[in-house]
Design goal:
By secondary structure, the chain is of the alpha/beta class. The protein is 32% helix and 22% strand. A hairpin with a 7-residue loop joins strand 8 and strand 9. The mean pLDDT is 94.
Length: 459
């Protein structure tokens, strides 16, 4: 019986990870991510699927970032009612992220309606908090390294990937075929989580390529972060950091704790303006079984790896608004990391024109998004319907990325066993995916293809 894979996302773009696997009456969804970035891809979140969500027997998740889980509530509204399989930490983080995403979408729709900023007469959220709550009871926790039957005669195994807490690759065994979904591949020799775990390749490999044409460099991210903070403090400014609430924020806290403990940065306030980041940090604290040796040693010594001195959380809306009146030096971290919404947008509006501010990007900014626009050196940025001059110093640190770079992607391929029958390069901007596919062809001699959005292939 023929097995097919349809690339419903992360093909032609770096976001929206979704893959439909079909074999006879069996239908599975690997990831269910939201598109992020420019309008073209955001509009695809509203696409009515040509397949019936009611027919899906299981959803398998690699990890909890919104570009891998973010359309689950919309699919639920369209009829998806199956179990959602994920590691325990992915389940915990997904609950936080989906509730937050739904709330942000409701608030954004209300704001756009009030300010008449939408091209639609009545702007609607992609889904509601009620939709998100409908999805959450369907999560089913899976252990690492154990083969689980996710549909009749279909098994899946999750293995460490080190990208964020709970992140995994998925090995799918279906009708005698073995398909590996890399998910997002993490970094090697960085704090907090274990290194990416090698796999045994089978008939098909889907591998991400977010940084498939780049090297993060040999610089020490802790030292670079410290230098930026000291420079900003010297001009009495604020370090404003758009950050993912899950993963990136905890990495920042780890480095900030270390820098302060060594006396390498001034003991200024560290403010996390994200209730979700607060909850995510608690999840990181409680899942020490995924720590690498360095973090485990800190934890075993009775210290918390993610608690620098003078750490504060802005919990409510009033706390967040009150930060607008703070002009003393501080490190202000807020979501979302891709500038797609959330409290960071209001802080950006308040501080982007202040030359004392450093706007520090610590993660990938999708093409066409506001972060990409700012990083390209444009002089103004449109926020909430108005243009604001960009006078803040704009900096970027790829070394804090949770994504493997080109060399690390190749290291994972080299350390894994065997040769994939066919490799599909996904989850990258088009030119990056093309470049990494050529690298695999030249260095590994693999059969490689870059799939197109909505393309269907036979395994």
């Amino acid at each position: 019986m023929t097995t097919t894979i349809t690339f419903l996302g992360a093909a032609g773009t770096v976001t929206g990870s979704k893959y439909l696997v079909e074999n006879g009456s069996t239908r599975l969804l690997i990831d269910a991510g939201m598109f992020q970035g420019d309008r073209k891809w955001n509009d695809e979140n509203w696409r009515e699927p040509e397949w019936d969500p009611r027919s899906v027997q299981a959803v398998l998740l690699t990890h909890a970032h919104i570009d891998h889980i973010g359309v689950l509530p919309r699919l639920s509204r369209l009829g998806l009612k199956c179990p959602i399989y994920a590691t325990a930490a992915t389940t915990d983080c997904s609950k936080l992220l989906l509730r937050d995403s739904a709330r942000l979408q409701e608030e954004d729709a209300e704001f756009r309606a009030k300010k008449k900023l939408s091209r639609f007469a009545v702007p609607l959220p992609l889904y509601t908090v009620a939709d998100a709550e409908e999805v959450i009871p369907r999560f089913r926790n899976v252990p690492f390294h154990q083969s689980i039957e996710v549909a009749p005669n279909v098994k899946a195994t999750w293995r460490w990937m080190g990208h964020i807490l709970g992140a995994a690759s998925i090995e799918l065994e279906i009708d005698g075929k073995r398909i590996i979904f890399s998910g997002d591949i993490g970094r090697y020799n960085v704090p907090i989580l274990k290194d990416p775990e090698p796999v045994s390749f089978g008939d098909v490999l889907l591998i991400e390529s977010t940084y498939g044409d780049k090297l993060h460099g040999d610089g020490n991210p802790e030292e670079e972060l410290g230098k930026i903070i000291r420079e900003t403090h010297h001009r009495h400014g604020v370090v404003l950091i758009p950050s993912f609430a899950v993963g990136r924020t905890q990495s920042l806290l780890f480095y900030l704790r270390s820098l302060k403990a060594k006396g390498e940065i001034p003991d200024i306030p560290v403010v996390i303006d994200s209730p979700m980041a607060n909850e995510a940090t608690k999840i990181y604290v409680s899942n020490f079984g995924e720590y690498d040796n360095e973090s485990k040693n800190i934890y075993d010594s009775g210290k918390q790896p993610f608690v620098p001195t003078r750490l504060q959380f802005a919990k409510g809306r009033d706390d967040s608004i009150a930060l607008n009146d703070v002009h003393d030096p501080m490190i202000l971290i807020a979501a979302s990391g891709m500038l797609t919404g959330g409290r960071i947008m209001h802080h950006l509006r308040n501080r982007i024109s202040d030359p004392r501010t450093t706007l520090l990007f610590v993660g990938h900014q999708p093409a066409g998004g506001k972060g990409d626009w700012i990083m390209k050196g444009n002089k103004t940025v449109r926020l909430f319907g108005s243009e604001y001059p960009i006078r803040a110093e704009v900096r970027a640190m790829s070394g804090l990325s949770a994504h493997a770079d080109k060399s690390e992607l190749l290291r994972w391929c080299n350390e894994s066993k065997g040769t994939p029958g066919k490799t599909y390069v996904v989850h990258g901007d088009p030119e990056v995916a093309d470049a990494f596919s050529k690298t695999l062809e030249q260095q590994k001699r693999w059969s490689v293809k870059v799939p197109q959005y909505l393309e269907k292939v036979t395994v």
